[in-house]
Design a protein that fits this description.
The chain is built from ten helices and no strands. Helices cover 75% and strands 0% of the residues. The chain has two domains: 6-57, Homeodomain-like (Arc Repressor Mutant, subunit A), CATH 1.10.10.60; 63-196, Tetracycline Repressor, domain 2, CATH 1.10.357.
Length: 201
C-alpha cells in the first residue's frame, strides 16, 4: 500500500500545530483572561516557539478570529451545482459547512464569538478580517458567474450576504448561550431567503 505523500503529511502536521496553538490559547484566555495572556505563554503551552506562533497567527487577535469555517463554506460553495443561482448556492454551502461542525467546534465558535464582542482589540481586528472575507466572497461569486471580482453586481451581492450574516447574528453574545449558535445560523438562512426573494416587506 502506498504511503501518504510528503505534502499531505506536512499539511496534516501544520493543521495539528495550528489547532494545538488555538486550543491552548482559548484555554489560557478562559483561565487568565485575554488581556493577561501573552503570546509567549500560548507558545509555551503549545510547545512551539513564539516565531512559530506568528507563522500561524500574525497577531494574538487572529487566534480568536481565524478558524476554518470560511474555508469549509467556500469549498462547499464551489461544489454546488453550476445551474444553482448565487444566493441559493450560498445558503446550501452554509448549511453544508455547518453540518461538519462537531459539538466541540460549536463550543469553540460560541467562545470566540463572545470574545470578539467583548475585547476591543479583537473587534478592531475583526474589521480587517471582514474586508478579507468580503473579497473572498466576491472572488468566489465572480468565478461562479464568469465575471470580474470588482464587478458591481458581484461586489453588491458579496457585501449584502456578509452584511446579513453580521446583522442577523448580532449581538454576538447571543452565541454564548447553549444552542444559540445553531439558532443564529437558522436566522441567517431565513434572512438570505428574504434576499433571494427580493427583500419583500
Amino acid at each position: 500500500m502506498a504511503g501518504a505523500s510528503p505534502d499531505g503529511l506536512r499539511e496534516r502536521k501544520k493543521a495539528r500545530t495550528r489547532a494545538s496553538i488555538r486550543e491552548h490559547a482559548l484555554r489560557l484566555f478562559r483561565e487568565h483572561g485575554y488581556q493577561d495572556t501573552t503570546v509567549e505563554q500560548i507558545a509555551a503551552a503549545a510547545e512551539v516557539s513564539p516565531s512559530t506562533f506568528f507563522r500561524y497567527f500574525p497577531t494574538k487577535e487572529d487566534v480568536v478570529l481565524r478558524d476554518d469555517f470560511d474555508v469549509r463554506m467556500f469549498e462547499a460553495f464551489e461544489r454546488q451545482p453550476p445551474d444553482l443561482a448565487p444566493i441559493p448556492a450560498i445558503r446550501a454551502a452554509v448549511r453544508e459547512a455547518l453540518a461538519t461542525l462537531t459539538p466541540e467546534e460549536w463550543t469553540e465558535f460560541r467562545e470566540t464569538s463572545e470574545l470578539s464582542f467583548a475585547v476591543p482589540e479583537i473587534r478592531s481586528r475583526a474589521l480587517d478580517e471582514l474586508a478579507q472575507t468580503i473579497q473572498a466572497m466576491a472572488d468566489a461569486l465572480a468565478k461562479r458567474a464568469g465575471r470580474a471580482p470588482d464587478d458591481l453586481a458581484v461586489r453588491t451581492i458579496a457585501g449584502a450576504v456578509l452584511g446579513i450574516m453580521i446583522t442577523v447574528t448580532m449581538p454576538w453574545t447571543n452565541l454564548a448561550s447553549d444552542g444559540a449558535g445553531a439558532d443564529a445560523f437558522d436566522r441567517v438562512d431565513r434572512a438570505l431567503a428574504l434576499l433571494e426573494a427580493g427583500l419583500p416587506l
